[in-house]
Amino acid sequence: MNIPPRQLRMFLALSESLNFSKTAEQLFMTQPSLSKAIRDLEQTLGLPLFERTTRSVQLTAGGQRLAAMARSVIGEYDAGLQRMLSSAGQEARQLAIASLPSLATVMLPAVCTALEREYPEPHITIHDCSNGACVQRLLDCQVDFALASVAPSHPALLYEEVLRDRFVLLSCGPWRKRLGPRLQLDDLSGLPLITMTDASTAMRYMSAAFLQRGIEFRPKMQLDQVGTIAGFVKAGLGIAVLPYLGMMPMQTLRGLQVSEIADGPVRSVSIVTRRLATPTAIAQQAMAAVRAVGVGLMEKHAGWILPPTAGRQS
């Protein structure tokens, strides 16, 4: 038995007015259409709801009892629909992003600020984690998109490069005096380099750059967190090797010097999405904000942060 809510609303409206022409006008429909809908409802229920004469329309006893039930059904339907719409509204403001910590720190605050101007009380979850974890969260449908620094080879993913950043050296104390503003990769041999762990993309980029020269990259120390690296550099224990975006939060620390690696690697920064997924409106807005932030960074830090490679999307 299939009785749509609209048919019940017609029945209730007629039960109150007891006038086919007035009810049809109220519901913006023709009187024959209303009459047919009521006859169809009576056939579906298997009993008459109205007694019709040439002069009047009256509810039957069964019609009176069913009208009370119909009001309850419609009331519950409307309340449930309102709850569903409210929940849908909340879902429409949900956003989850996976990002490398260095990208989350520099890029996502401005992205979230832009979203808060467009959406009332958005609920944003950011997972700052390794590149592999970012991609896995995306594949597991735990996030709407990811900010990653290596193009994934998984066929289910799309990769859109938004910018590239160069690797730099960060020094302090006596090491600052020994390093010039511009070095070559070959100049790094013998220096007490501090980098991130093997799980990081930064380490992979540096290892690949040295491997192209037939040299194994063997830093003095490897640490998980950029903030910890900054502490060791400040203590004079070594020289950090980081992508420029990863170094940016440390620029406010006093006594630190940034040196260019002229022939060093260049890191790719990209928006990664699921190939078959349709992004929500808030996710599309967030990705547009990421692109805008990227353009601003390229303008403000020209030479250190570079435009995406032409046509780099897969």
TrEMBL record:
<dbReference type="GO" id="GO:0003700">
    <property type="term" value="F:DNA-binding transcription factor activity"/>
</dbReference>
<dbReference type="Pfam" id="PF03466">
    <property type="entry name" value="LysR_substrate"/>
</dbReference>
<dbReference type="InterPro" id="IPR005119">
    <property type="entry name" value="LysR_subst-bd"/>
</dbReference>
<keyword id="KW-0805">Transcription regulation</keyword>
<feature type="domain" description="HTH lysR-type">
    <location>
        <begin position="1"/>
        <end position="60"/>
    </location>
</feature>
<dbReference type="GO" id="GO:0003677">
    <property type="term" value="F:DNA binding"/>
</dbReference>
<dbReference type="InterPro" id="IPR036388">
    <property type="entry name" value="WH-like_DNA-bd_sf"/>
</dbReference>
<comment type="similarity">
    <text>Belongs to the LysR transcriptional regulatory family.</text>
</comment>
<dbReference type="InterPro" id="IPR000847">
    <property type="entry name" value="LysR_HTH_N"/>
</dbReference>
<dbReference type="Pfam" id="PF00126">
    <property type="entry name" value="HTH_1"/>
</dbReference>
<keyword id="KW-0804">Transcription</keyword>
<dbReference type="InterPro" id="IPR036390">
    <property type="entry name" value="WH_DNA-bd_sf"/>
</dbReference>
<protein>
    <submittedName>
        <fullName>LysR family transcriptional regulator</fullName>
    </submittedName>
</protein>
<keyword id="KW-0238">DNA-binding</keyword>
<dbReference type="InterPro" id="IPR050950">
    <property type="entry name" value="HTH-type_LysR_regulators"/>
</dbReference>
<dbReference type="GO" id="GO:0005829">
    <property type="term" value="C:cytosol"/>
</dbReference>
